Each structure stands twice: as C-alpha cells, then as structure tokens.
Amino acid sequence: ITCGERIRLGEQSLNVNQRVAVEMSEILSELLLTQNLKRFATYFDLESGTSRSLYTTPEKIEKAVSLAAENGNVSKHRKRKSKRN
Predict the structure, then answer these.
(1) Global pTM?
(2) DSSP 3-state assignment of 34?
(3) For an engineered disulfide with 6, which of 11, 17, 22, 24 has Cβ 3.0 to 4.6 Å away?
(4) 49 DSSP assignment
(5) Do the beta carbons of residue 5 and residue 14 sit within 8 Å?
C-alpha cells in the first residue's frame, strides 16, 4: 500500500513524510556536517504534537539493537506463518 493510499484511508497524516524528512535532515547534518550527533532515533506523534529522541548512550543503543533483533525474528516468523495460510 502506498503513502497516498494510506492518506486516503486516514491511516497516515498528510504531513508525516515531511516530518520524517526534517528529522532525517537534522540527524544527517549532525552526523556529517557538525560531527555532533547525540541521538539515533526520534519518535513523534503528529496528532498530539509530541516527540522524543533516544540519545547515543551505550545502554540505549544496546537496548535498541536487542529490540530490533527480537522484532526481526518476530517479523520473519509472521511472514512464514502468513505464507502457510
């Protein structure tokens, strides 16, 4: 399903791609231009106007990598399961 279809169905905000672009631009600028990157993830909710970032501490990165590995295993399991049905 495309972003346009998600917008039409009310599943995605019209401005979510712009917000992601701004966040990525900021992260890339901090990484490549100022070499002062202090965060590696930002989560936002356009409806409520809230956002939060995860900062680059060893503990936060270790936790994120562990969660990603777990979610990757879950996603693979779901894909295999859905192919069987």
Answers:
(1) 0.63
(2) coil
(3) 11
(4) T
(5) no
